[in-house]
Amino acid sequence: MAPSLEAPEPVEDVLANPLKQKPQLVAPEPEHCPGPESEQAGTADSCAGCPNQKICAAAPKGPDPDLPLITARLAGVKHKILVLSGKGGVGKSTVTCQLARAFATNPDITVGVMDTDICGPSIPKMLGVESETIHVSSAGWSPAWAMDNLAVMSIQFMLPNRDDAIIWRGPKKNGLIKQFLKDVEWGDLDFLLVDTPPGTSDEHLSVNTYLKESGIEGAVIVTTPQEVSLLDVRKEIDFCRKAGIKVLGLVENMSLFVCPKCTHVSEIFRATTGGGRALAQEMDIPFLGAIPLDPRIGMSCDYGESFFDSFPDSPACKALKGVVRDLAARIGLDPKDVMPDE
């Protein structure tokens, strides 16, 4: 007989109370138990005489008291956009940085990037602010500024040494994400882009919970063309639907390779099942565009430089600008106001 998973918690309960830790009970829940995480836990008539009564009564209840503080702190942020993918290695952080750089090419737009990939924070390196540190004042934590209109916050700024591993369990990650939203002096932003790790777990639930009250514009989902990537991206789209996060669109990264010398086009990652465009049609979500594989994007990220400034005429740059214009239209903005035609 094949092994089976432990009975999962109901999805509705996880999404409604994603940050609550189940109390460690000393005895099985009795037949008429109201539930160790319910408002009546430890106080209901049926709790009398239960060995777990004191444990359940002491467990935290109700909404997080910091949610109104987060909402007040982010009151000046117009559009909050998550960058997600169920698959690792598809270029979420790269796409996040390129979107931020693209928005920031307009001097009238102010952008913030929040790096919630706690164990693999690469955003500071890609945006050229790896050596920055966090400054704390009476107003809160000050983000690092990659440009006059591009702010960044990441755990990387807090590490004693750049190569130190972050070996944290879920609750500690959740606590830091809350601090990034509650304590950072984001100020007035047109866009806050939230870079996330792969998957559908702690960090994603935390961000969704903390931002829901202040309003999430939606999510940009990143994939590569091959079915191995699409398999996990389908799960991420399902997560968004169950969590009530609007999918603004799908971006196919590393779509084709265009030789910079002879312009010959090659499929490095073959779209055996139709790639991102087919997936978007299958899942009934918008397709924002396909970004070709360009080694110069990786080089720009390694040096923390702007790909848009260095290679403005490249196919990848033109594709990224197209993605930005389509994304702007999806959130009700005039694309020409965000990314003027050249």
UniProtKB/TrEMBL annotation:
[4Fe-4S] cluster 2 binds at residues 259, 262. InterPro entries: Mrp-like_CS (IPR000808), Mrp/NBP35_ATP-bd (IPR019591), NUBP1/Nbp35 (IPR028601), P-loop_NTPase (IPR027417), YlxH/NBP35 (IPR033756). One of its GO terms (biological process) is iron-sulfur cluster assembly. It is found in: Cytoplasm; Nucleus. Keywords: 4Fe-4S, ATP-binding, Cytoplasm, Iron, Iron-sulfur, Metal-binding, Nucleotide-binding. The keyword RNA-binding does not apply. [4Fe-4S] cluster 1 binds at residues 33, 47, 50, 56. GO terms for cellular component: cytosol; cytosolic [4Fe-4S] assembly scaffold complex; nucleus. ATP binds at residues 86-93. Its main location: cytoplasm. Component of the cytosolic iron-sulfur (Fe/S) protein assembly (CIA) machinery. Required for maturation of extramitochondrial Fe-S proteins. The NBP35-CFD1 heterotetramer forms a Fe-S scaffold complex, mediating the de novo assembly of an Fe-S cluster and its transfer to target apoproteins. This is Cytosolic Fe-S cluster assembly factor NBP35. It comes from Podospora didyma. The lineage of its organism: Eukaryota, Fungi, Dikarya, Ascomycota, Pezizomycotina.
